[in-house]
Design a protein that fits this description.
InterPro entries: HAD-like_sf, HAD_sf, HAD_SF_ppase_IIIC, MDP_1_eu_arc. The protein is α/β, with parallel strands linked by helices and 166 residues long. The protein has 5 helices and 9 strands; from the N terminus they run E-E-E-E-E-H-E-H-E-H-E-H-E-H. Strand 4 (36-38) and strand 5 form a beta hairpin. Bound molecules: magnesium ion.
């Protein structure tokens, strides 16, 4: 079965919820207490429920993973990733405001992996449209990535590749 060589995740509303806003709308400093991360106004930052299991699946299957975020506050995003203790899991992290075409060009160059061998999750259709146009299998996420959508997308990727001419 064909599996992606690189899986790329958006952050806001795909891997994490920042109290209902984009992470660049939070108010630092962030406080961390007993694995609860909150900003100065009490907004909680949390990974969606299935995210740890999804990342573990990627580890188990030895699939490289990456981040592509166009947040206006890359420093805050990186701090939150550190607090969540998941920074090291990602082989690549492209975090800066821009079209995601730039993020994916950087990922392709850094990894040497073809767009056709990548799978991408994002909650914004403009990103899905742009990145999908590159040939990346791009999956629209509604209200946070779930294990169900993740595994269905792996199947979709495998099916898609099976239909490709060799
Ligand atoms: Mg997002």
């Amino acid at each position: 079965m064909s599996v992606p060589r690189l899986i790329v995740f958006d952050l806001d509303f795909t891997l994490w919820d920042c109290g209902g806003v984009w992470c660049d709308c939070l108010c630092p400093p962030f406080r961390v207490q007993e694995q609860r991360i909150e900003d100065a106004t009490g907004r909680l930052v949390r990974l969606y429920d299935d995210v740890h299991a999804i990342l573990k699946h990627c580890d188990d299957q030895v699939i490289s993973i990456a981040l592509a975020s166009r947040t206006e506050q890359p420093g805050w995003a990186r701090e939150l990733l550190t607090h969540l203790e998941i920074t090291e899991r990602f082989a690549y992290a492209e975090i800066y405001p821009s079209s995601k075409l730039r993020h994916f060009a950087a990922l392709q160059q850094a990894s040497g992996i073809a767009y056709e061998d990548m799978l991408f999750f994002d909650d914004e259709m403009r990103n899905i449209d742009e990145v999908g146009g590159l040939g990346v299998t791009s999956v629209f996420v509604r209200e946070g990535l779930t294990a169900e959508l993740f595994h269905a997308s792996l199947n979709r990727f495998a099916e898609h590749r099976r239909c490709d001419p060799a």
